[in-house]
């Protein structure tokens, strides 16, 4: 890991959507600190609705935070049209559904060339497109240039989406569920490709997923998100082999390898609702440890009354936002 400034830094980021349809404001991201180091892959894990996709889009400038700051290589992100256009040359988003991300009327060449054309980097465009396709594993690129999305498999489509991002020579990739819509047989190929791009190009990556199993295969560090906040963060070994937060433990318990010696933990109660964040620990209404506490023990824990501090962005040591994490 380089000692230079992290590729991306998030400081006390908050994103709140206005109230609507009789419901209060939705605190989609409610105080998040995170770093992605140079050449590092960080997996951001959590259930649907926990805010991870909102955070991912904020990291590439598609959503302006309500408060807080995003820094790219130590410099704060600003939101003028010119600044955002320049920033998006360096930080590219890869979406979950390649079929939806690709224009069905565009062939592969035009899909990959679209970014350079928008950014005015059309010098040696043919070479740029060919190189991007090769780096994305579509070789020889001449075989794919004139194909349309419907003429390719899901894995090939995702490689075209990745090639489109690579055509701008970014230093950071934010991949939102990059393998969720793919067959199991090609998921490993796409994850391997992201690792190869990190090793060959020095890319940094934030990979968003609901699957902790993905982190075993690809990430250097893991951040677990629940209801707008990161509740546990650390290296893959720290978080996945020695989880502290009961939410992380519940997610891990359903993995075949990690949970083979225990029954899967079934989370009760309502799934995350960013318009109704509970007092105290925001996970306590669904926490399997909370019902076990009685009387004085419950009062002393303060899970339902005492707010937890926002975890810091410090990449070490491992951290967990849980009143009970160190006592059990």
UniProtKB/TrEMBL annotation:
Highest taxon above the source species: Bacteria
Annotated ABC transporter domain residues: 8-252
Pfam families with a match to the protein in the record: ABC_tran (PF00005), oligo_HPY (PF08352)
SUPFAM superfamilies, sorted: P-loop containing nucleoside triphosphate hydrolases (SSF52540)
Keywords of the record: ATP-binding, Nucleotide-binding, Transport
Keyword set includes Nucleotide-binding: yes
GO molecular function: ATP binding
Gene3D superfamilies linked: P-loop containing nucleotide triphosphate hydrolases
Annotated family: Belongs to the ABC transporter superfamily.
UniProt-recorded name of the protein: ABC transporter ATP-binding protein
């Amino acid at each position: 890991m380089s000692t230079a400034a992290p590729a991306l830094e998030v400081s006390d980021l908050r994103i709140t959507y206005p109230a609507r349809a009789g419901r209060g404001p939705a605190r989609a991201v409610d105080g998040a600190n995170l770093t992605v180091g140079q050449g590092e892959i960080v997996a951001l894990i959590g259930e649907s609705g926990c805010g991870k996709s909102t955070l991912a889009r904020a990291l590439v400038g598609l959503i302006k935070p309500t408060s807080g700051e995003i820094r790219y290589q130590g410099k704060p992100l600003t939101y003028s049209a010119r600044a955002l256009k320049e920033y998006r040359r360096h930080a590219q988003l890869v979406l979950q559904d390649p079929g939806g991300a690709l224009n069905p009327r565009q062939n592969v060449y035009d899909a990959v060339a679209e970014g350079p054309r928008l950014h005015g980097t059309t010098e040696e465009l043919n070479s740029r497109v060919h190189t991007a396709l090769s780096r994305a594993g579509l070789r020889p690129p001449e075989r794919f240039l004139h194909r349309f999305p419907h003429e390719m498999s899901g894995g090939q489509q995702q490689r075209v989406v990745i090639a489109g991002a690579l055509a701008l020579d970014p230093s950071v990739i934010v991949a939102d569920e990059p393998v969720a819509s793919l067959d199991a047989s090609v998921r490993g190929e796409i994850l391997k490709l992201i690792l190869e791009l990190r090793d060959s190009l020095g890319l940094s990556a934030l990979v968003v997923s609901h699957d902790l199993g993905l982190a075993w295969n690809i990430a250097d560090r893991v951040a677990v998100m629940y209801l707008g906040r990161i509740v546990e963060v650390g290296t893959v070994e720290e978080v996945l082999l020695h989880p502290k937060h009961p939410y992380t433990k519940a997610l891990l318990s359903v993995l075949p390898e990690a949970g083979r010696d225990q029954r899967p933990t079934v989370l009760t109660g309502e799934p995350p609702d960013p318009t109704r964040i509970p007092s105290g620990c925001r996970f306590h209404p669904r926490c399997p440890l909370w019902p076990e506490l009685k009387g004085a023990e419950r009062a002393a824990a303060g899970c339902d009354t005492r707010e937890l501090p926002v975890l810091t962005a410090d990449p070490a040591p491992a951290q967990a936002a849980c009143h009970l994490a160190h006592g059990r």
